[in-house]
């Protein structure tokens, strides 16, 4: 094979490789653009400016160790960079993957949100803070007494008789079931699941991907 043929062969191979890379990247971009259809998020606990251009939805389970980790490792950066700056708002949806304890915690959080929405997020964090470190997956720790103690620390002005009734007699079950329907409608498979302006992220702990998707959503709003 002479030198001209070698050069031509090399150019053709390089062009094929570039074309394959572009195809793969375009498929990835198409996947990123797949939208998740969410019903109304009205009357859901939401942190940040209600007029923020970007909506972040967290599907979380108070019994879930990964949700606790997300709240400690990812959420503070998200709040500093985008929520406190008015660029994004965060809505929390209860997931009930871990059975009765998940339900109890969700009932309690809905009760606090109903009675004292300003302290919802403090109570929300308080539940995750109370989650035992390195827990056995099935170890029981969510009880009415535990939830009352957390509420006394973070939402002390609520009516505690009503709070206990909401937990023990499922007084806020309708609100919890609204969340459960959203979980089923969107087909949530794991917690935490993060959705940004309708785009479900593959890895909720990849902050670079979260940041990129938010910035992309902001750019789209400005076009």
Which key terms come to mind for this protein?
Thioredoxin-like_fold; 9 helices; single chain; membrane; redox-active center; disordered N terminus; Glutaredoxin; alpha+beta; 5-stranded mixed sheet; oxidoreductase; DsbA family protein; 223 residues
Descriptive account of the structure:
The protein is of the alpha+beta class. It has one domain (46-222): Glutaredoxin (3-Layer(aba) Sandwich). The protein has nine helices and five strands, in the order αββααβαααααββα. Strands 1-3-2-4-5 form a five-stranded mixed β-sheet. It is globular, with a radius of gyration of 22 Å. Mean pLDDT is 87; it is low at 3-12 and 14-33. One of its GO terms (molecular function) is oxidoreductase activity. The chain crosses the membrane at residues 6-25. Keywords: Disulfide bond, Membrane, Oxidoreductase, Redox-active center, Signal, Transmembrane, Transmembrane helix.
């Amino acid at each position: 094979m002479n030198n001209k043929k070698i050069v031509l062969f090399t150019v053709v191979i390089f062009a094929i490789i570039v074309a394959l890379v572009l195809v793969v990247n375009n498929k990835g971009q198409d996947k990123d653009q797949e939208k998740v259809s969410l019903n109304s998020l009205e009357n859901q606990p939401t942190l940040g400016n209600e007029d923020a251009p970007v909506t972040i939805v967290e599907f979380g389970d108070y019994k879930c160790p990964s949700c606790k980790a997300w709240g400690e490792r990812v959420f503070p950066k998200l709040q500093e960079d985008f929520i406190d700056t008015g660029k994004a708002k965060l809505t929390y949806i209860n997931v009930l993957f871990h059975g009765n304890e998940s339900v109890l915690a969700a009932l309690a959080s809905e009760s606090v949100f109903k009675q004292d929405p300003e302290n919802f997020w403090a109570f929300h964090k308080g539940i995750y803070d109370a989650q035992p470190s390195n827990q056995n997956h099935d170890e029981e720790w969510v009880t009415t007494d535990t939830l009352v103690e957390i509420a006394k620390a973070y939402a002390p002005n609520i009516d505690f008789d009503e709070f206990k009734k909401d937990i023990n007699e499922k007084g806020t079950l309708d609100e919890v079931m609204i969340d459960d329907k959203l979980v089923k409608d969107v087909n949530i498979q794991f917690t935490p699941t993060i959705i940004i302006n309708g785009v479900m992220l593959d890895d909720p702990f990849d902050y670079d991907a979260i940041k990129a998707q938010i910035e992309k959503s902001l750019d789209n709003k400005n076009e």
